[in-house]
Structures are given as structure tokens and as C-alpha cells.
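Let us begin with a simple case.
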Amino acid sequence: MNEYIGWYEKTPKDADDTRWHIAYQKPLIVSEFGGDAKVGLHGSDTERWTEEYQESIFRHQLPMLERIPQFRGLSPWILVDFRSPMRQLPGIQDGFNRKGLISDQGAKKKAFYFLQTTYRQWSLSSPLERGFGRQP
């Protein structure tokens, strides 16, 4: 499934109170999630398009996803910003999808480092130790 709480709907903090009820007892892979940020644009974690806002999305989405019993894996959308002619917000998008963890010029955004730390922590524990599938 794809999930964009904090970007296309609601705010990042709304993920804290979101509960998923999935009827199927099959593994769940989150194939897209995240939000946009222009590299080098800094501000409040409530200000859209900033690196802090993008990082905030991940900070709230990951604990939410970990509460889903069937959750088994994920892939943030996307690793590197890419050309997208329909994205025309001047000074921000300028023809790019900015959901990358890395800019089109190779600069790593704050969200990159947050996910890097999270993945390292996850690799040192089992899914049960991490709380995957734990109900609140």
C-alpha cells in the first residue's frame, strides 16, 4: 500500500492517532510514504517544504506503521529527487518531485539521516523486540 499522512492529507502528528485495521493475515509492505522537501530549505517542523517538515513526517509515520500487526517492510518514496514537468511550484519544485531523501544534486536531506539511524537501530533487533505488530 501507499501512505501519505502528513503530506496529501492531515498533518504529520495525525499519524500518532491513526490506527490501521487490515482484515487479511498477509504481510504488508508499504511501497510509498513520505513527503516533499527542498534541500537547504529550513524552518519549523510544521512548515511544508522544509527539511524539518519532511523529517517530521517520517518521525510520526514510522511508529504508526510499526503498530500494524501485518507490517513487514517499507520503501520511502523516493531516494533521489527527480524531474517531473507537472511540478511547477516556483522556487520550490521547479519541475522536480522533491520527495527524495537526496536532492537531484546529491545532497542528503535531514530525513535521509533520520531514516539511516532508524534502519541501523532496526537492524540490531528482532521485529518483536522493535515492537512491530504491537497493539497500543
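The second case is a distinct protein. As before, the sequence precedes its C-alpha cells.
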Amino acid sequence: MSTRESEAVRQGYRWCRTLARSHYENFPVASFFLPAPLRDPVVAIYAFARSADDIADEGDAAVDERLQQLDAMALALDAIDSGTTPDSPLYQALANTITQNNLPTALFHDLLSAFRQDVRKNRYADFGEVMDYCRRSANPVGHLLLHLTGQASERNLAMSDALCSALQLVNFLQDIEQDYRENGRIYIPLDEMQHFAISEQDIAQQHNSFQLRLLVQHQIQRTAKLLRAGSPLGKVLKGRFGLELRAIILGAARLLEKLNQQENMFSRPRLDFADRWRIMLGAIKQGFI
């Protein structure tokens, strides 16, 4: 790699880090827990996913324009596959991450497929449809991280899928009001809303009823089971990557606790300083058990 190319890659990673810092996330992104060699690749993967997510969710662009922008990201991936790196900070960093770590670009295409679905689809008939979305919107990230660390065994990938799907469901539960208000989306399965006698109007009017609490608690319980199914991965993976993962798992569990305890089902719980301190200590302690 020439000096000019090296500088472009460094600038690309700096751009990705700036993007990561500009977005609030309940779950840490490339924190100090991670080994230093993993931080740049992780932040490049995050920046790609965040950029696509912002296309699907932010601004006033029409549906066709959003889809065209996501298609352009797919073409950029194809260019990287062919050895031609697009001249933008994001793709300079991403191309370096993909080539240096031999990452399958099909996983990035899966992410784009989910974001295209966000543009086109805003209701889910049943939990199977929700999980199919999670398979493409969340699970590829776990696969990429396991490939990065050379630990993409069949067992690890299965635990990662449970964990990543659970994290996606946590996001849905804490963003019920925001998803509906900003993008007109409802990720709670429609058949389960009908079972608990909850209408779309209840969500539109933020009607906190006993039935809504039962519906949300049902979602919480199922999500907690998925989280427990994937949580052994935090102990299987050693070192600082395992520590980071345990912190994410404990953070998700704490958010589910807060969701279960709060009176307003439309309020977005956040992790405060005390939560984060306990999570960090718990993640360290679990590494010795």
C-alpha cells in the first residue's frame, strides 16, 4: 500500500470513529474493552451499518431515492469485491477491513437487504417475520465480529444469532414510540397485538393500558430467553473481546429489567452511570467464573 493509500485509509477510519461518536448507542461501539487491533475494523463495520440505517430512517427523501442510495452502497461493495475501492472515507476504511480480515461481503449485503425492507415495510404479521428481519439486520454483525476474531465456529455462530436477535428486539421494545412517530413502523407482531387486544390506535395515542403491559411483558420474556440462549458466548470468547461482549449482554439484560419495571411502555429507558459501572464490574467478574 502506497503512502497516499495509507493516509486515505487512516482518514477513513477517523471518519468512521467520528460517526460512531456522534450517535448515542445503549451498547458500546469499539470501546476501550476491545483489543486495539479490533477497534478500527469494528468501527468501520458500525459506520457502514449506521450509514445505511440513516438512509432508511433519516431525512425527507422519497422511497425511491432511499432505495437508490442503498443500491449505491451495494454497488460499492461489489467494487470492493473486484478490487476497486470507491473514493470515500467510509469505503476506504471498509475496504481495508474487508481485505485485511477476509470478511464475506455477503454479510454486508444482508444488512442492506434489511434496510431496504425498512424502507418498504412497516408492519410484521407474526414473530417469524420479525425474526427473518433480525436474521438480516442484526445477525450479520455477530458473524462479522466472529470472523474478525477467527472464532466463527458453527456453535459460536448459533449463539451469536440468538444474542444479536435479542439485542435487535431490545431496540424495538425501547423504541416503540419513536419507531411509530418517526417512521410509522410497528415491529410488534400484529397477530400478538390482536391476541392482547391492542390496536394501532393504542400505539398512536400512547395508551398505557393493562393489556399493553401484558403484550410488552410477553415480548420481554421471549427476548430474555433469546438473550440467555446466546449469553454463553460471552464466556466462550476470551480476552477483551469476551469482556466487551459480556458488557453488552449485561447491558441488554439491564434494559429489559428497566422496561419491565417502568409504568410508561412508551418511554425509552437508558443506562445511567450507576448501571454502566455495575455492568463493567459484572463483566469482569464473569470472566473469572
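The chain has a mean pLDDT of 91. Residues 121-289 form a domain with the Farnesyl Diphosphate Synthase fold (CATH 1.10.600.10).
Keep these points in mind for the review questions at the end of the chapter.
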